[in-house]
Amino acid sequence: MTAEFIGELLADGFFAAIAAIGFSVISNPPRRSIAYCALLAAFGHATRFLLTNTLEVDIASASFLAAMLIGWLSLPFAYKVHCPTTTLYIPALLPMVPGMYAYKTIFAMMNFMQHINEDEIASLYMIDFFRNGMTAFTILFSLGVGAALPTLIMRRWAFTMTRKKV
What we know:
Layout: H1 3-26, H2 31-54, H3 59-81, H4 85-93, H5 99-114, H6 119-153, H7 155-160
Helix pairs in contact: 1-2, 1-4, 2-3, 2-4, 3-4, 3-6, 4-6, 5-6
């Protein structure tokens, strides 16, 4: 790994952390959890960046693995700040939502509707619509399942350890 790649990796994690802070603040969580949301987002997004750019893992699988990392790390962090895991991992996942694929899906659908009478052009836009739509759906599904799975596997630990001991 070159110094340039490490700089890109750190920048990716940094900007994901800033986005997660913004998403976290608008949902009004306990203040003590905001830094953990940022840390989770930085680790998760940097992991996805690393997997897609060095190991050439597809974006859906990389998103699943990054979401699993966020889910597993949210368990001890939630215990530490006494809040539910969802308070931590939802804002951390939001920077990984595939906005560009969703945009390209809608754009292809609009172009398909404009060229519906031209078979060759319409079929190209339909292919783009399904390609981008399935990619966006798969990434979203991977994020949801990957983050929720650790909480479901460690159900008893996840839901009993977040309460303060009196």
